[in-house]
Amino acid sequence: MNSMHERLREVRDALDKGMYGEALARCERLAESGHAPDLTAKIGALKLDAFAGLGRWREMVALGSTLIAGFVPNRESESLGRIHGLTGFAYLRLGELRLAERHLRASIHIYTWDLEDLPAALRQQRRLALLYLGMGLLRQSCSEMESAIEISDRNSCTSESGILRVNLAVAMIKVGCLEKVSKCLDEAEKFLKSASRTKWLLLSTLVRANYFRITGHPMQALEILMPALQITREQHYSREEAITLEYIGDCYLAKKEYKRGLEHYEEALKIAEATAPEGDIIPEVCHRMGETLTRLGDPNAAILLCERGLRVARALGDRYEECATHRVYALAHREAGNS
């Protein structure tokens, strides 16, 4: 029988390969098999990683809160830093930004000052930059990412160098720096391929597809989105499946195939409602559905969707999506004949 440490390594290997369902099953078997009390936090942290890969945010928050409450002061600092970071990430995806920031800052403090673990601190800085991105603080988000990229490249943190560039490309699209996006993604994919980070390569594909669509090439976008959709379903990546469906809907909207676009938006919304009903995907899909319904002659339904999207965007503090939704909201009111 393999030793406990070998079994923990097998879980980490599964996580590194993006096999989150297998990693979770291994964690559950480890938890049931009996182990030393000091391994509880390590197994719990690995389980949180698996939940994150599968988009099971509420289960992450519940488990993370339980683990943090059970920690002995001045012990297991490494696991505590990791659990704070993952719990913060889950709160971020659920739209609980204040709680997300508290946990992320706690994690950064532990990794920076208690453990002096640079790669781990960079991971939390990346998540903090995503928090700023979700709040619509685009310049602040870009600044955090560019700083982290410089540190990551200088210290050969290959995976972080890759995924930080993917996130920076997202921010560049939002601020309109489209001329830099393709190069940024090319560099990201080079790093991620060398690190064999399959899920993060998928994220890069989604950003590239969005870039193609925005720059007027919806067919090129669809060519890479359809295989990506299959991967998200095979690997049970619920958040990424919703985003892929959203982007496919965007392509059909660009091609003026409104009914096909609406079908994909409806699928995306269904997934988002099931996994994170107050999360950042809701306002994105709501205003896109609103625009599609307006073009299909149903502005009143569009108004209701926009009102929901505005409520969630405001709760998240996402000024970018709030602004985008207001544009569609005004369009729908005009088409409905409202002054």
Automatic annotation (TrEMBL):
Q: Which Pfam families match?
A: TPR_8 (PF13181)
Superkingdom of origin: Bacteria
Q: Does the keyword Transmembrane helix apply?
A: no
PROSITE patterns registered for this protein in UniProt: TPR (PS50005)
* InterPro entries on file: TPR-like_helical_dom_sf (IPR011990), TPR_rpt (IPR019734)
Keyword terms, alphabetized: TPR repeat
**TPR repeats (start-end):** 242-275
Q: Which residues form a coiled coil?
A: none
Q: Does the keyword S-adenosyl-L-methionine apply?
A: no
Name the record gives this protein: Tetratricopeptide repeat protein
